[in-house]
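Q: Give me a backbone?
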Amino acid sequence: MLNELQARFYQLVTAPEGVARTLAARGESASAVLALVRGDGTLSAVERLDIYANMYFFRLLDVLRDDYAKVAAAVGQSAFHDLVTDYLVACPPSHPSIAQAGARLPGFLAGHPLSRERPWLAALAALERTHTDLFDGPDGTPLAMDQLRTLAPEALMALVLRPIPCHRLLAHDFGLAEVWERPEQAPAQASETLLVWRPDVEVYHRPLEEEERALFARLDGKTSLQALCEAMPGAVDEVARSLFNVLGRWVNDGLVERAG
């Protein structure tokens, strides 16, 4: 009996259109909720349940607005409200942590009518979600520039590096880096690979050009810098020059750590 009452309560307070309309859609009268809540002269049983229903929806709306502030700015607050309503109907929260409530929004948004008008929205949402995920991701031990400077040339070439664990590569067909601070603007349609990472307490992202992306992909925690240069196409000296041009940036960005 208790399980049935709990399930009934949950169904009504999570309904997106309010308790009264949900009951009407099911062909039930307001008296159907008297087993759950008693009304009085101030509020009816349905009105009392609606308090919980409104709290449930608007708490989730606030969380999703925080997690997807760029998407909300891109579409406007009214459209974002409607998007969240559609999303919660299709993808009700299934994880005990409210932080996971918006985990499926990027995938849902890809098929939503808003993405027909703004086809970059799903990619923008994926970037925002990645920021959220990496904020709570595993810590690493980034290599410091002072450590790098102490190495003799032979030791430097023997160095084996890997990316810090808290990173991700996102590839899409829009120049999101250009509009991150102005999400209400439409990005250019152009292939872009973004590196997203968290070296300490802040999450960052930036575009990776093809040459840097190829070198970064070789940082497998097994291959020395010398072997990496020898394995890359082109003259070893030229590859080494390109590698050390980006190595300083990787270290300054807190992107790489020693393996082993």
Remarks:
- The mean pLDDT is 89.
- The chain is about 50% helix and 10% strand.
- The longest helix spans residues 45-67.
